[in-house]
Amino acid sequence: SESPISQAIGSNKKLRKLWGASRKSGHGKTNAGTQGLDEHVLDSHVNKIMSTMEAQKIEPSIVTFSTLVDIYGRRGNIEKATMYFEMIEKQGLVPNEITYSTLIHALGRKGLLNAAFSVLDKLKQQLKTPPNVHTYTSLIDACGKANKLEKMFEVFALMMEEGVEPNVQTYTSLIDACGKAGDVELALNLFHAMQRANIAPNEVTYTSLLQACTKRKHLDDAFIMFTEASRNLGSSMPKNASLYNELVLAFGKGDEVERAFSVFECMKKIGIEPDSLTLDALLEGAGRANAFEQAIGIFEEMKARGIVPHEDSFRMLVAACGVRGELVSAFMVFSEMKRAGLPLSVAYNSLLEASLQANDIEAALCVFEDMRSAGIEPSSDSYRGLLNAATSDVERFEKARAVLNDCVDEYSESDSSGSESWKGSFTSTSSERVVDGSSQQVVPVSSIPSRRMAKEALVQIFLLFMEMENSGIHADTIAFNCLMDACALAGDSDRALQVLGTMRGKGVKPDTVTYTTFMKACLYDGELKRAFNVLEAMRADGVKPSTTSFSTMIDGCMKLGRLDLAMELYDQMLNVDSIVPDENVFKNLINGCIINQELNKALTVIKWMNEYDISPRSHAVKKLSSLAKSQGKMELAAKLLKIAQALENNENAEDENDTRIPA
């Protein structure tokens, strides 16, 4: 269709050619075509056309002036837009609703709300009719862009009072303003009101809602809107690449990797080429979620497109390989990281962490040694991971420790700062411990193969810890807890006490895990009194014991034949520390009662379990039945056996029938 000025010009070929020149750099529409023109060039074209029209005795019409108001209004030149608006009356013409709406819209875009409302008042006085939906929508949009939400809703209410029905642009302006103001709930309410009014949202409406939900982390709402938009718009989905990038990134960081890939599939379906940001976000999200196949698929696509992943994406991918146990893939990605020019420290530490996640201690130690040979300093996370691996599987660590022989030789003769505190004997000195003044025979550590191996590995673990500190990496609570756990596995409470002292000396605050592990070291070492002292020190230090703390202590007391102390601990747990017992606490209490053949106390423990809606395990009740039988309590034994069978059925069928033992 012809533009208003083309219609005003009529069939004059010279004027048509001149007007066409003013549109040369545009997109085919009068108001859009002038956007790319220099202001002086545009003025020159307009002046020539107006002069030629005057020479040809072609009178400018209201359409001519409305178009000029629109052209300069869109360019933000309010002075000229107003000038042409005022020329209408000078020419003896009367502005129509389109002219008023055009000027209001221009003023609103510049944030000149007072001027826009003044024009609205003039419109009402001169035309004696309510403004149309486009005029009101222009004002609503202007108020929204100026973040004047209260004024915006006043205009909306006035519009409704005057019987002007809102359209899709009206609701979209309201939704966009609320979304940008951070009120996602109000934006969604407006969206639903729009649907109830049978007004179909368009791609701009959905874009505004999706951006609002994404920025405010309303991921469920964002995905619902995305799914609805896909269903309703089909191939007319917004072609806004940045919108999809935002969605992919938000879903990826929100651990919603499946949703991120749904957005990715939609992009491909409607013909939007993913860029490096999209693919990087997908790779990082898939890596974070340990979605190995999807992560590798995106990685291969990035390689095919010549896109190098971001450093964090590489790290997440290597980690996903480690969790999946795909170390071959991890080494392949490691090679790509080096080829991409990433810092070697990043590449090596990522590979080391992947090896540890894959529970491949041998590979981890090989990577560690290779790092040291290449002069690459392992990160604090890598050191902590090795310490944790050493304490969690001492047998495999001991088999693989030959890799660290050079490290051992280097530091065994070292007199560097801090190393003296770790020197001393790592062997068990006694098989007899004193518990509350009474002699308590315990099994010597050296007689337990796994404990003996842990004792031997303890040297390597302390040396590894020393190397970490000497390399300038600050040991935090997690690293010290790994060291404490090594002492516990070796049953070396003296060394554990040294670890606690070193922590305090370095200003590292012990936590619940530290003290609980220290108690475990004391119990493994047969030092029951020391374990109780640790519990008191823990409270004095302002660290609250956990259920695991009490479960560990109760288990140790039972194994050392002190059922009385175990029962006392249960009382402390409830009345001193106000901790709710869990299944492990009760399990250890029942096992202790069975070992000590205390049937009545075991039944008391089961009564306590009933109070917390916790059922005993069937095998424990069977043992109680056998204990009752051995004590000549046949009727009770039969009842316990029947309950044990019911519990066993319950465990097998995962039924929720109440099979608790009656009080």
From the structure above, extract its key features:
single chain; 663 residues; mainly alpha; two-stranded antiparallel sheet; 70% helix; disordered N terminus
Helicity, as a percent range: 55-70%
How much strand? under 5%
The count of strands amounts to 2
Judged by helices, strands and strand pairing, the structural class is mainly alpha
Task: Write up this protein.
The chain is mostly helical and about 675 residues long. It is about 70% helix and about 0% strand. It contains 36 helices and 2 strands. The protein has helices spanning about 5-10, 15-20, 30-35, 40-55, 60-75, 80-90, 95-110, 115-125, 135-145, 150-160, 170-180, 185-195, 205-215, 220-235, 240-255, 255-270, 275-290, 290-305, 310-325, 325-340, 345-355, 360-375, 380-390, 395-400, 405-410, 450-470, 475-490, 495-505, 510-525, 530-540, 545-560, 565-575, 585-595, 600-610, 620-630, 635-655; strands spanning about 430-435, 440. The chain has a two-stranded antiparallel ribbon. A hairpin with a 2-residue loop joins strand 1 (about 430-435) and strand 2 (about 440). Helix 26 (about 450-470) runs antiparallel to helix 27 (about 475-490). The longest helix is centred in the last third of the chain and has 22 residues, at about 450-470. Mean pLDDT is about 80; it is low at about 1-5, about 10-15, about 20-35, about 400-450 and about 655-660.
